[in-house]
Amino acid sequence: MKKFIRKWLTILIPLFIGIGIIYYQFTTLTADEIEKIKISFQKANYYYILLSLAFAFLGFWSRAYRWKFALNHLGYQTHFYNNFYTVCVSYLVNFTVPRSGEITRAALLKKYENVPFDKAFGTIVAERIVDFSIFLLFVFVGFVSQFDTLYQFLLTKNVSVKSILIAALCGVILFVIFVLIWIYAEWKIILKLKKKLSGLIEGMTTILKMENKWKYIFHSFFIWFTYLMMFYVAIFALPETAEMSFNIVVMGFIFGSLAVGFSNGGLGAYPFSIALIFGLYGISNDVGTAFGWLAWTSQTIFTILLGIISYVFLPILNRK
Fold it and tell me: In whole angstroms, how far apart are CA 160 and each of 30, 120, 152, 156, 168?
């Protein structure tokens, strides 16, 4: 009985937290803004929302499929359904504490496939490094193509481009120093850390050594293609955003991804970020906010439902 209660509490607590935060975000809107958002939800074409969620599902599937290449290289032949369900649960858990889903994902694979936690977590860290590199590619393309618009926006906010470049350069220098110390230093504390983190490092370096690295890279780009299409398809759900140029879509996608990455699955931050970036291109705050809430709400409900279903099915399919 206790085990049953604990299982459902782990499902319901994140769900209620998410509902509470959504409710709080709505209380910060004026009555006029809420009414306009309601109208947008009523006139939205939900065929495009469903198509957007289909791309989201493909992204989940591809992420689970990509994971098997790294795990196989380490000598672990895991069941695909366990890979897929743990990925889905990890997205659900991210709504509680940002990036906590990665820890949950490795822990679940340890439980159901007996893959050592440190090695499984190492492969997930490697995934994040690859994903971040691809995201930086999007950022580079987007910022170069839209430099004038972004530069004018920074000027209106009294933000110095020079200060941003200096901060970025300092960050790069500190990172390079850390890497050099990690590789070449013979300090006792560094050697102890290397020994303790050997499994994690082995998992992180699988990409460099695996036989199917090109399939792994293909799925990495395919995952981000599904993310972009998920956002792009959703713009056709509202008449006010259907004629939006692809440049604006890319910028909205970049800022939306940042909002999701640095918060609890984009709770509250996603609609705000979308409205902000759309506003740079003359799209009203009401339309930007409505689109942000429409896209985020549909994705969130889909992620929560898929995460709960996966959490329930994991012990059922692994009874033996």
Answer: 33, 42, 11, 10, 13
Query: To which residue do tokens 């998410």 refer?
Result: 18
Residue given tokens 């992204």 in the structure block: 59
pLDDT-based confidence at 100, cuts 50/70/90? confident
In order, the DSSP letters of 251-272 are HHHHHHHHHHHTTTTTTTHHHH
Which tokens in the block code for residue 112? 């159901």
Determine whether 58 is exposed, middle or buried from the number of CB atoms within 10 Å of its CB (0-12, 13-18, 19+).
Answer: middle
Closest by Cα among 314, 320, 318 to 11? 314
C-alpha–C-alpha distance, residues 24 and 38, integer Å: 17
Q: What is the pTM of this model?
A: 0.79
Distance between CA atoms of residues 39 and 44, nearest Å: 8
Tens-digit pLDDT profile for residues 160-208: 666 667 777 787 787 777 767 666 666 666 666 666 556 556 656 667 7
Q: In whole angstroms, what is the distance from residue 255 CA to residue 259 CA?
A: 6
Residue at token pair 């380490």: 74
Residue 319 has a CB neighbour count (10 Å cut-off) of 5
Please check whether residue 27 is in contact with residue 283, taking contact to mean a CB–CB distance below 8 angstroms: no
